[in-house]
Amino acid sequence: MSLILQDLTVRRDGCPTVDHVTLSVPAGSFVGLIGPNGAGKTTLMQAALGLIPSEGQSDLATLPPARRARRAAWLPQAREIAWPIPVEALVRLGRRADPDRRADAAAVAEAMAALDVTHLASRRATELSGGELARVLIARLLAQRTPLILADEPVAGLDPSHQFAVMELFARLAQQGRTVIASIHDLALAARFCHRLVLMDRGRLVADGHPSDVLTPARLEQVFGVSGAFVPTPAGPVFVTLPPPPGSCAPAPPEP
Amino acid sequence: MRRDARLLVVLAALVAALALASLLTGPAGAGPRAGLQALWTGEGPLGIVLREIRAPRTVLAIMVGASLGLSGAALQGYLRNPLAEPGLIGISASAALGAVIAIQAGVSALALGVPFAALGGALGGVALILGLAGRRAGGLGLILGGIAVSALAGALTALVLNLSPNPFAAYDIMFWTMGSLADRSWGHVLTAAPLMLAGWLALARTGRDLDALSLGEEAAASMGVNLPRLRLAVVLGSAAAVGAATAVVGAIGFVGLVVPHLLRGAVGAMPSRLLPASGLGGAALVLAADVAVRMILPERDLKLGVMMALVGAPVFLHLIWRTQAGR
């Protein structure tokens, strides 16, 4: 088992934003965490890491911070870089927790190659485009070489080909026995690449399983207020989101 | 890393050259050779001048400059803001308040009475900031706490001046707050040294954590950085270094702001590499300014703080202009 959460609950001003979530993720899986805005996806991952106080149990949160950093890497949603640090030095920051200095150069080069940012190595991070910076920050995550990776909307803001590349990379890491948990808003990407989807709504875990079992029309309408279907294509079945069927009780669009 | 070593060697050489210039500059007007000889032997009136007046002044300039440069770099790294400087967290203002109260109370007659009172003021200010900014608050709490403490200390300083029945004390206070290295003794050096050293040690150890913090507080925490401890090290370290500096030489602005700014490009903007460079750069800048005040107006006691602001503000304006133009 790579991550075990038991009755994890996070309260903000008394209201639970994550409500008794129990989840276990075995090594070698790529889990997509989906749900509408404010469902508690980010909070769940932060609590699992022990970055915010929570009730219940997470096997990660009980580790001392330095050991946790060798076991799990975290990509926050905000793409922040405070100083005009060269890209290679930024990726190297991910090597902080690992005491093995000899592995640094290889880990950094490998991570930069995997995210297609090797050609940016000496550019200043503050001068990159949003998508380039996002890829450089994912390279930092990868350079940490942890068995477990938690990423908050890793593909948001990337161009389609790099979205595919990042999702394929995560799927490949899972095949190699590592574990990736990523929150994703693009349901088509999530359905295509994740072995398993975990659907959250209002702090609760409402569905957990294979994409075709989680993305049912009834659940889509109930949680997201949209419809959707798996459409056969030459490249295999592809999930598309569709407008809600007429007469549904989905939330009405705001008045103009 | 080799580039770093070269930069540090260049800066150290600059400090050494300016220290020599500082030792050989003064109203006694001896030649360089006679000066160095007198420093070596300590004989005659010139020996006393060099050993008891110029040497402590030079050593103090290096210590004060290093404290300001190092604290500025650490605070900018911690707050992730190039506009942060040691004065921002209210240490200089509260140290000044301590000194002002001591001068008003007539403690200045005692040797080192004013520095010790200023140290007390700085410690009071730090306690207040840490109390105000809370344990879990981020950088913003620290900035706001610092502004509040600065405002309070400034108001109380003004009140003391306002109600001062003694015009000479008011005059003394005004000159003290301008900051100067003139007429400082080994007593001043020894008063400031222990606290400054403690501050330097605390700040020097924050480098790796500050690097990780470049990625934001959340990413840094996930990589194993203990944020509350880092914050304590940065605040207490700069408070100790800058509080001790202000206590013995008065308020000196711009060093902690301009030096990290000037050197950031040379170290690839990495906070850990900026720390030592900024310490040496601060020492060089204060030494240069202290030599300049003695050369520009030898007869009139031009204050170091005034000189620094006169040079520092235009340099800072130029930097801002250059950054804006570069965009």
List keywords for this structure.
heterodimer; A: 256 residues; alpha/beta; Rossmann fold; 2 domains; six-stranded mixed beta sheet; three-stranded antiparallel beta sheet; 9 helices; 11 strands; 27% strand; B: 327 residues; ABC transporter involved in vitamin B12 uptake, BtuC; 77% helix; globular
Describe the structure.
The complex is a heterodimer of chains A (256) and B (327). Chain A is α/β, with parallel strands linked by helices and 256 residues long. Chain A folds into two domains: 3-211, Rossmann fold (3-Layer(aba) Sandwich); 216-256. Chain A contains nine helices and eleven strands. In chain A, strands 5-6-7-3-8-9 form a six-stranded mixed beta sheet, with helices on both faces. Chain A has a three-stranded antiparallel beta sheet with strand order 2-1-4. With 327 residues, chain B is mainly alpha-helical. Chain B has a single domain (2-326), classed as ABC transporter involved in vitamin B12 uptake, BtuC. Helices cover 77% and strands 0% of the residues of chain B. Chain B has 14 helices and no strands. The longest helix of chain B has 36 residues, at 44-79. In chain B, 50% of the residues are buried. The chains are: A alpha/beta (256), B mainly alpha (327). Chains A and B meet through helix 2 and strand 5 of A and helix 9 and helix 10 of B. Chain B: InterPro entries: ABC_BtuC-like, ABC_transptr_permease_BtuC. Chain B: One of its GO terms (biological process) is siderophore-iron import into cell. Chain B: Residues 1-30 form the signal peptide. Chain B: It is a multi-pass membrane protein. Chain B: One of its GO terms (cellular component) is plasma membrane.
Question: What's the SSE blueprint?
Answer:
The complex is a heterodimer of chains A (256) and B (327).
Chain A: E1 3-12, E2 15-25, E3 30-34, H1 41-49, E4 55-58, H2 65-71, E5 72-75, H3 87-92, H4 104-114, H5 130-143, E6 148-152, H6 160-175, E7 179-183, H7 187-193, E8 196-201, E9 204-209, H8 211-214, H9 217-223, E10 227-233, E11 236-242
Parallel strand pairs in A: 3-7, 3-8, 5-6, 6-7
Antiparallel strand pairs in A: 1-2, 1-4, 8-9, 10-11
Chain B: H1 2-23, H2 32-41, H3 44-79, H4 91-104, H5 113-133, H6 139-163, H7 167-178, H8 186-204, H9 207-213, H10 217-222, H11 227-249, H12 255-263, H13 271-296, H14 304-326
